[in-house]
């Protein structure tokens, strides 16, 4: 029922281009030796949080001790090892794993390396993630009302999700586990496209009927293999053990795009749980929206990205109002100019820096870009370090951490990077 229009649940791989642009690719991290751990794990760890999970592939799968997986995985060996770390001598396998139920809920298929699958095991076997709820500081994973919204037909868009009651800013309106997770950067590591597609199809085929149906109902562009197409069209970026993956969330994918959305997504790198959080107060009858493109883009950039990647022309309130769109572009260009000015202004006083940050904050608020303010603070904090202004760098690093915890999630990759930066600047000595 969804396939008739790619407008209804298209998706963005990365919601925050600034964060992506400023973070170095951790490549080829997936070749590191296992075993990893769960860095955001509970304060009182159980045995399976701290023991090293075994590597499981098609040769080593033990039916009597399958871990979280319900079937022996299907694996392929890379044909080339050109881009592998020199220390990596072993054959590396990419495998399709399926768990028929995670945490008593929906099923999941994962296409990834044996090392990353081993790291995921403890997380997938953990039935109790209450410790994470506590970390979130009052926003419980169960503190949402599924009946607060419903799927319905939206004029000109196919299906969409509409509020059935008043939803307050900050309220978690949707929580979902992924049905499919795929290693993102497999190509440079020597696996063939045809083999990866075979694994995707295998992963889809082993999902129980309910999840398989949800996956095949997701929007796609009609190009190439349907499962690969669905992943390309709908996947969100998800970091597993610090390595980039693409993850499918069928319910979240029903939410349509708006350039000034009333919801944002928050993603847990520890549990892979996706939350949709109200970004503004939402009235009954109002359609829920998220932005498929980075919030800071100007209209030309947004329309080109939306048309190019998802094949539709945006008709959201901002794009439909030429005057408002021009004013918005001016504000967003001004934010970019401020960052450029700061980057080139080595002699700026603290007063000038603070004035620039204050102007940026006003523009960000006006443009509904608050979910990106952490990334912007991070960029300015870097500039402050370059200028030798350690005091302000520390101040901004702390603000970055605070807002990333809220907007990105307490255990999101972006928050982890903000925490590392905060620790780094706090250990620095003034010169
Ligand atoms: Zn728009």
From TrEMBL:
Keyword Signal: yes
Record key words, sorted: Signal
Presence of the UniProt keyword Signal in the record: yes
Residue runs in coiled coils: none
Residue stretches making up the SET domain: 137-293
SUPFAM superfamilies registered for this protein in UniProt: SET domain
InterPro entries in UniProt: SET_dom, SET_dom_sf, SET_domain_protein, TPR-like_helical_dom_sf
Database matches in Pfam families: SET
First and last residue of the signal peptide: 1-24
Superkingdom, taxonomy of origin: Eukaryota
Name listed for the protein in its UniProt record: SET domain-containing protein
Origin species: Podospora didyma
């Amino acid at each position: 029922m969804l396939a008739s229009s790619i407008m209804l649940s298209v998706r963005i791989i990365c919601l925050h281009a600034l964060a992506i642009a400023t973070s170095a690719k951790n490549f080829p991290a997936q070749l590191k030796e296992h075993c990893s751990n769960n860095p955001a794990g509970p304060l009182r760890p159980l045995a399976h949080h701290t023991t090293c999970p075994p590597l499981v592939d098609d040769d080593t799968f033990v039916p009597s001790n399958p871990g979280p997986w319900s079937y022996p995985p299907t694996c392929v060996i890379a044909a080339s090892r050109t881009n592998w770390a020199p220390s990596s001598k072993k054959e590396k396998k990419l495998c399709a794993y399926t768990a028929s139920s995670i945490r008593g809920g929906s099923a999941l298929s994962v296409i990834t390396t044996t090392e990353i699958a081993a790291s995921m095991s403890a997380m997938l076997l953990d039935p109790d993630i209450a410790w994470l709820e506590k970390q979130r500081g009052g926003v419980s994973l169960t503190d949402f009302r599924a009946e607060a919204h419903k799927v319905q037909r939206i004029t000109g868009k196919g299906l969409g999700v509409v509020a059935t009651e008043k939803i307050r800013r900050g309220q978690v309106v949707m929580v979902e586990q992924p049905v499919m997770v795929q290693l993102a950067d497999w190509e440079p590591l020597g696996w063939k496209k045809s083999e990866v597609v075979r694994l995707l199809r295998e992963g889809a085929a082993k999902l129980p009927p309910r999840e398989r149906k949800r996956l095949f109902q997701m929007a796609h562009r009609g190009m190439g293999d349907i499962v690969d197409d669905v992943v390309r069209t709908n996947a969100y970026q998800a970091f597993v053990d610090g390595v980039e993956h693409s993850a499918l969330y069928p319910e979240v994918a029903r939410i349509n795009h708006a350039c000034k959305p009333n919801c944002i997504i928050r993603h847990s790198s520890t549990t892979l749980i996706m939350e949709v959080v109200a970004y503004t107060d939402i009235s009954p009858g109002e359609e829920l929206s998220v932005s498929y493109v980075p919030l800071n883009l100007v209209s030309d950039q947004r329309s080109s990205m939306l048309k190019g990647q998802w094949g539709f022309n945006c008709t959201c309130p901002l794009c439909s109002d030429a005057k408002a769109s021009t004013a918005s572009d001016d504000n967003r260009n001004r934010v970019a100019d401020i960052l450029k000015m700061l980057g080139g202004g080595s002699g700026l006083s603290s007063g000038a820096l603070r004035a620039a940050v204050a102007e940026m904050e006003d523009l960000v608020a006006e443009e509904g870009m608050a979910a990106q303010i952490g990334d912007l603070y991070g960029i300015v904090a870097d500039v402050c370090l370059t200028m030798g202004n350690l005091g302000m760098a520390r101040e901004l690093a702390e603000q970055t951490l605070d807002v990333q915890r809220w907007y990105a999630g307490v255990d999101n990759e972006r928050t982890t990077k903000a925490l590392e930066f905060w620790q780094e600047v706090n250990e620095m000595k003034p010169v």
